Amino acid sequence: MMNSKILMMLLSAALACSAATIKDVKLACSSGGCGLRFLFAGTDDLPSFFQKYNAASKTLTLGFSESQFAMGEGNYEVDDASQYVRSMRVFRENFRGMDFLKVELAVGPAISGDKNEIALEKSDFVLKVPGAKEKGWTLSKLYAAKKKEADKAALEESKRLAEEKKAAEKQAQLDKKAAEKQAKLDKIAAEKAALEEKKRLAEEKKAAEKQAMLDKKAAQKAALEEKKRLAEEEKRLAEEQKKLDKAIKDGGSVSALLPGLKEMTVLMGSGMEQFRLVAENPIGISRIAGPGKTGIITVALDGPQKSPVFKIGSSSLVKSVGWGANGLQIQLQANAKPVILVQEGALILQAPETTLKKDGFVFWTARPDGIYTRNWVKSSEEKRSFDKFVDAYEPSSKKIVSAAQTFHLRPVVRELIVVADETEFYTNPNENAQVVKRLVFGDRLVSLDLVGLYRKVQFDNRVGYVNRRAVSFFDELSSVQIEHLKQVDKERGETLMQDGTVPGSMLESLYEDRIIYSSFGRRDPFVEIKGLVEEGINIDQVELVGIIWESEVPMAILVESKNPSVSYTIKEGDKILNGKVLKITQTDVLFLIQEFGVSRRYSMGLPDKFGGQK
After folding, report:
1. What is the reported pLDDT for 1?
2. Is residue 610 part of a domain?
3. What is the CATH number of the domain that holds 306?
4. Domain ends where: 135, 167, 190?
5. What is the pLDDT of residues 415-448, one digit of tens each?
6. Is beta strand 346-352 parallel, antiparallel or unpaired with respect to 272-279?
7. For residues 100 and 77, what is the distance between their CA atoms, to the nearest angstrom?
8. What is the three-class DSSP state of 179?
9. Cα torsion 441, 447, 450, 456: sign
10. pLDDT digit string (tens) for 58-109?
């Protein structure tokens, strides 16, 4: 067995020794064309040969049986611009049980097939290609030159790296010395700064102790002066009260108002609050200044330099009224931002109503002969008919408040109605918050506050939040929604509505000459129109064709009736001719029209598929 293995090894070695060896490859050209020469080591045991051309990759593969390449297998770059051979790859591959040395040539346009003429000249295997001349080359010399260039480049790169390393070491040494020097300077500077800071803190402490002593003395002096002032004020009030008691006892009349004022009136309900002040001298809009940072509106009127303060207990607009050195001063409640206007010499402040917690209406007026209040606040338990309400109106209407000039108003709430088919009742003003309940069309909610895109409401003794677009006040409903609400109430067997009128609006018939309005930052209807130009869409000349609902801000699309190619996109609050867009629901748009000081609401619904209104 061992002898057989030794015999096979010797046979393989003999075959290897007898294999043909290609020493070099050479391209030589003459007038007749070029020849690619494969230089074999000898004429003995020359191999079999084949050639194959691949048109797609433009490669010509030459195969030599049982042959070796002295320069070794691998890739050899020649000339990318050559018409004959641009590069070559040498590798070995077994084909039908025979070992072949393959030379894959990337060729130029001079070689376009595998029918090239071949010849054997002594020990040189020649692939002949006719055509133009080209500069010849020998592969070993070509790669010797490239190797020399590569060795030279490597030597230069090694030299460059050594120089860079030496320079880097030198720079590192310099940087180290500079860092040590800077660290020493920084330490000296830090010690100096610490000493200066310690000195500064000592001086500040000394100054603070001195200031504290001065403040203590000033506070003691101020406290003594305040005590003296309070004693004098108490004495003055006692004397005034004594005079007041004597005047009342003697049958004299005492004004319930401040000097120089004829009337102060507050109106609360129907979603708005209004404060009206009438002075003995007419008020002009040019005489009004403020409110300033402290919330004081100053009216430049002639009057006393100083007066008692008329306090208003629970109004969300005005806190108090009194005379000062610059005129009449009106102190607003915190965060109150009312609309300010003048009508026929009377000052009017107006803002959305937020203080009432029940359905109802509150009115009071202060005049020199007394303070009159009317309070139509209806509790949730009370269900009086309108006739009984009118019967109780006159006997309880007049109440004269004492001369202390301080009173409070009872709050009422406004009722919200769910107008969406369904909506979520959240624990927080966020669509990702926990859903407490799903509300449906017609559900009643108590409006508590407005928080961004959500309304804070109360439902079944629970407080939560709903999307503001899913609810409306009754006076914002369209005629279609009112009819739908009546049907829902009838199906539920509830009597929450009285002939389509909410209880809080029953008082409007008692004030036929009273106009309820809200400017919402736009021109107030009581301001004189002369000199102003009204612009906007005329809703009498347009039709509603679509509502964009699934967006952060709902929008409606209108087209002109006579020219449907002209369209408009509107959103809540947008100005129209003589009014604005009040509310947009899934099926309707509610407009607020203000003409000649009179407000009216106009509803426009989407058409159904038959051309009627939904």
Report:
1. 44
2. no
3. 2.60.40
4. 135
5. 889 998 899 999 999 888 999 899 999 999 988 8
6. antiparallel
7. 22
8. helix
9. negative
10. 999 999 988 899 888 999 999 888 888 999 999 999 877 888 999 999 999 9
Domain that holds residue 70: 19-135
- The 3-state DSSP class for residue 121 equals strand
Q: How far, in Å, are 7, 77, 124, 143, 497 from residue 22 at the CA level?
A: 28, 18, 9, 16, 111
In sequence order, what E strands does 410-474 have?
A: 415-418, 422-426, 435-440, 444-451, 454-459, 462-467, 471-473
| Residue 4 domain flag | no
Q: Are residues 28 and 109 in the same domain?
A: yes
256-288 per-position pLDDT tens digit: 678 888 888 888 877 788 889 899 889 888 889
381 lies in the same domain as 454: no
279 and 247 housed in the same domain:
no
Q: Which of 161-170, 419-428, 455-464, 593-602 has the lowest mean pLDDT?
A: 593-602
In the predicted model, is pLDDT for residue 612 greater than 70?
no
In a domain, 410, yes or no: no
Shared domain for 494 and 544, answered yes or no, is no
Tell which phi-psi region holds residue 531, choosing left (phi > 0), alpha (psi between -120 and 50) or beta: left
**Residues 471, 419 within the same domain:** yes
Q: Enter the DSSP assignment of 475.
A: G
**Residues 6 or more apart whose Cβ sits within 8 Å of residue 85:** 27, 36, 78, 79, 105, 106, 107, 108, 111
Among candidates 185, 334, 183, 364, which has minimal Cα distance to 268?
Answer: 364
How does residue 326 score in pLDDT terms, banded at 50, 70 and 90?
confident
CA torsion 479-483-488-492 (nearest 10°) is 120
Contacts of 437 (CB under 8 A, 6+ apart): 424, 425, 459, 462
Amino acid sitting at position 380: S
Q: Give the DSSP H/E element, type plus range, for residue 130.
A: none
Q: What is the pLDDT of residues 290-323, one digit of tens each?
A: 788 888 999 988 888 777 778 776 577 888 888 8
Q: Please report how many Cα atoms fall inside a 13 Å half-sphere around the Cα of residue 433, on the Cβ side.
A: 15
The answer to whether position 530 is within a domain reads: no
pLDDT at residue 214, rounded to an integer: 94
Can you tell me the distance from the alpha carbon of 231 to that of 418, in angstroms, rounded to the nearest whole number?
A: 59
